[in-house]
Amino acid sequence: MALDRWIALILLGICITYGYTAWFTMDADLAPFMRRNPIWPSTFPKVLSIFGIAASLIILLGLEKGEQKIGEIDHRRLTDYFLGQALLLLGLMVVYALCLRPLGFLASTSLFLITGSLILGERKWHIMIPVSLIATLAVWYLVQEVLGIFLRPLPYFMGT
Amino acid sequence: MLEGILIGLQTALSLQNLLVVIGGCLIGTFIGMLPGLGPMSIIAIMIPVAITMGDPSAALILLAGVYYGAIFGGSTSSILLNAPGVAGTVASSFDGYPMSQQGKAGKALTIAAIASFAGGTIGAILLMVFAPMLSSVALLFHSPEYFALMVVGLSAIAAFAGPGQVTKALLMTVLGLIMATVGEGALFNLPRFTGGIMDLQSGFGFITLAMAMFALPEAIFLVLKPKNLGEDGGEIKDLRITRAEARAIAPVIGRQSIQGFFIGVLPGAGATIASFLGYAVERNIAPKHEQEEFGKGSIKGLAAPETANNAACTGSFVPLLTLGIPGSGTTAILLGALIALNVTPGPRLMVDEPQIFWAVIMSMFIGNLVLLILNLPLIPYIAKLLAIPRNFLIPFILFFTLMGAYIGQNNATELLLLVGFGICGIALKFANYPLPPLLIGFILGGMMEDNFSRSMQLYGGVNFVLERPMTMILLLIAAALIILPVLRTRKARKAAA
Fold first, then answer.
1. SS3 state at A125
2. Could you report the predicted ipTM of this complex, rounded to two decimals?
3. What angle do CA A135, B425, B198 make, to 5 degrees?
4. Which of A12, A57, B211, B326 could bridge B331 with an S-S bond, Cβ 3.0-4.6 Å?
């Protein structure tokens, strides 16, 4: 089965779960006075669930005729591309999200930028390190000191 | 009116106010480029500075400069990085980013600058002429018409449906609308589809979703299959627009200045709807061969939303200045600033304090002109961003993507959501599902449901469609905009068979 149909199948599951909640469980706790309204909090979701299920089924069953196009990257030959780098960068983003608070903005951001370049094959340390540090400090200064949006600069054990 | 214009010019052209407008435009442009900081946040940040200036005219001129600068700055990150920081510039990335990818970043930014200038300037002329009259017309638009207007805005999805892909675009729109229902709705005050997770009470963040669906998949695709964006120099810095291109975008700019302005006048409609509608209308009236270019780097597809959002921003001043009603979040903040400066906007403003009313209008002209003069020489340098080596550029794009989501919500969980949605976005892109309809559905979904619910309550059901002719007409237009491309494709397929 083609990838777009697999995705349609997943979306069908999401729409059915969403529709089930809207049609059968959402209105249980509705206050009596709200039940007299012509519109309930579930009305719009009910309509959407019908559209969602219908559209997913049309794609899943291949009812709409159209040419099958491969996108700009052929997902069936992912190993021909720089897949490892892409996965490592996604992993790095997750690590950054988890480290931002405990490590502080300055350390986590400069490490993120240096490691990101490293993953992509850069080895010019004399450029990577100063560029990352200057960019990190500049963004921190602009966001916190100029715009007043708090970004904890240092690790948690060194105070705010 | 002539006397008013002269008073306004006298105030706006003083040396102090000229410096203020230049400073405001520069600050707005540079901060606006940061994803996550839209005009509303930047104006809010600048209010203390404006208030300490003491002079209401100078303060408003500063804020107007910041406003226009921020809109242009937001378009820059949309066009260069596919990272729209605010909803109003999402439509600019549909064709602006493909142009950048084709090595035409300089041209795309020039078109954006000129379209913004024209939209803002023509909008200011319309504001001068029609402001008092329009304020009363705007109040005739009620919830049913707003609901129908948003349905017309949604019809922009047809622009992203390739041959035989209408259902995919429709499914993405529905998914966006579904995501917009997560959290506490404005009308019901009940948490919906949150699964008991506190962080979802306020729903998904717009910036998180925009970054996850646009910027992150693009950056990862650049990693998977490196492209030469601008290392070869040459065209990337080229600002020139050919005569044929100028001729092609001139009518678009003219139409969208007017349409965008009138949509901006409607309280609550604003730049986002104006830009989507502008894009949808221009695509639908374009000749067939040009329609196929939309979404792939069409200059008309870039000029339309850029003109419309700027004209709408100017239009949103009509209810603010003439009725004291803020038509958008940004004008609500401006209203707060006006009140803090002891100025009460409303029908008496033009009579009691004409110097302020006209100075604001004149500052719009000057602000737009200053923005154009300042930005055109800067464009080659801004566009050169794309010539930064890939090994440095991609980590920075990913970092700004993360920062946009973090600044917007100040919550590290948002970053994890961003990566999760980003992976979904990448999978959808692999399978050729168009992503812009998802974001359009998400942006318009909340407003659409609120207006739909209010209409249902006011009219006791769906009778509002029949009872309000304007609503009916708008809904029929929307249906035609969705159905006609399908019929056209079917006809073309039959002819080919």
1. helix
2. 0.91
3. 80
4. B326
